Amino acid sequence: MDYYFSTGQMCVGYHKRPLIKDIEIGLEKGEILTLIGPNGAGKSTVLKSIARQLELISGVVYLNKEDLTQMSGTKLSQKMAVVLTDKMKTEMMTCEDVVATGRYPYTGHFGLLSKKDYAIIKEAMELVHVTEIKDKDFCEISDGQRQRVMLARAICQEPEIIILDEPTSYLDVKYKLEFLSILQEMQRKKGLTVIMSLHELELAARVSDKILCIRGEYVDRFGRPEEIFVPGYIADLFSIASGSFDEENGSMELEAPKEEAKVFVIAGGGTGRNVYRSLQREGIAFISGILFENDVDYPVAKALATEVIHAEGFEPMTEELVIRAKKVLDSCTRVICCRQSFGTLDMANSELLSYARQRGMKIDFVSGEKKKDRMESSRGRMK
C-alpha cells in the first residue's frame, strides 16, 4: 500500500549510536499518529529524526512518496510544521511576531508579509485563543500561553503534516480539549496529518487513528487504539507496579488499601465512584457489591476494592450471589449505601440493605448534595 507518510527500517539515535531500530510507520493522509511509552523511551528522538533535526542513523522517511532528506529546507517548511519541547529563543519579540514566523517559508528573500499572511496569522491566533496576548513579550508569558502561541505558529504555517512533542503538557483541561478538537477539525477539513507524543493516555486513545508504542530498542506495537488498549497491555508497557490503568475506559486509579476490609459499599449506576476514591484516600479498605460488570462503578471498584461481588452485564443477580454477598456483609462492621432507589434488576441490593438493617448494622447513606458532608461525618467513625 502507498502511504502518504511512511518510514522504512528507520533507526534513530545520537552520535551514530542507535537508540531505536527498525521503525516502520505507514500513515494515510489526514491520519493522527500518537507515540506513547515510558519516560526516556525515545519518543522525542523519533520526532526530531522525522523533523530532520536529528540525522537518521539508517533507513528512510517518505512524505507523499518523496524522500524527506532530499527536500530543500524551504519546501520542507511548507510541508511540515514542528513544535517540540525545546524553548524557542526570542529577543524583543511579541507573541504576534512569533506566530508570524510561521509565514516565512512563503515570504521570499525579503521576508515581507502580505495582507493574506496577516489574515492567516490573525486566524491562527484566534483559533488557539491567544489574540488577547498578541502584543505581549513572548518571554514574559506563562508556559501554557507560550505553548499555545507555538501551536498558533505551526497552524499559521499551513502545513500538510505537523510534528508535536507533548503539545498538551502545559495546557489546562479546557485548552487540552480545545486544541485536540482543533487538530481533529483540521484533519477532517484540510487533510492535516499529525504525528505527536502524548503522556495523557486517555486522550491518545480518543484522538488517535494509530498509536506507536516504544519500549527498549524497538517499537513494541503499532496499530489502532482498539489494538493497543487491550486489558493488561498498558500496565505491561509502563511497568505499572502501584495502582492500575483500565485500558477499556481510560480509568487510572491509585493503589488500593491493603488492610482487612470492614466496610461494605452498596452502589451502582455511577453512585459509588467518588465514595470508593474517598475511602482510598483515607486508606480504608472496603468491599463492594453487587455490581453488574457493565456498570460504570465496576472498573473503579475493581481497582480499589478488596473484593467486588459482581454479576454479568444484562443478566439477573442470582440467589447464589445474594447469599455470597450476605456472607461477606456479615464480616463487615459498617455499610455505606450510595443508592436512593433500586431498579427491577437491582432488587438484590435492596435485599442486602434490608439484611443489614435486620442485623442492626450502622448504615451511612451517601447521596445527593449531602454526599460530601455525610462522607466526612462517617470517616471518623470508620477509622
What does the model show?
- By secondary structure, the protein is an alpha/beta fold.
- It has two domains: 235 residues, P-loop containing nucleotide triphosphate hydrolases (Rossmann fold); 129 residues, Rossmann fold, CATH 3.40.50.
- The chain contains 14 helices and 18 strands.
- The strands form four sheets. The protein has a six-stranded mixed beta sheet, sandwiched between helices.
- Strand 17, helix 13 and strand 18 form a beta-alpha-beta unit.
- Helix 4 packs across helix 5.
- The radius of gyration is 27 Å and the shape is elongated.
- The chain starts with a strand and ends with a helix.
- The C terminus is likely disordered.
Within CATH, the superfamily of the largest domain carries the name: P-loop containing nucleotide triphosphate hydrolases
Let me know the largest β-sheet. Answer: 6 strands, mixed
Might you state the CATH topology name of the largest domain? Rossmann fold
The end-to-end span amounts to 63 Å
In round numbers, the mean pLDDT is 91
Helicity, as a percent range: 25-40%
- CATH architecture of the largest domain, by name, is 3-Layer(aba) Sandwich
Low-pLDDT runs of 5+ residues are: 368-383
Work out the number of β strands: 18
Number of helices: 14
The shape is elongated
Number of individual domains: 2
Strand order within the widest sheet? 7-8-9-4-10-11
The CATH class label of the largest domain is: Alpha Beta
Radius of gyration: 27 Å
Structural class: alpha/beta
- Multimerization status: single chain
What fraction of residues sit in β-strands?
15-25%
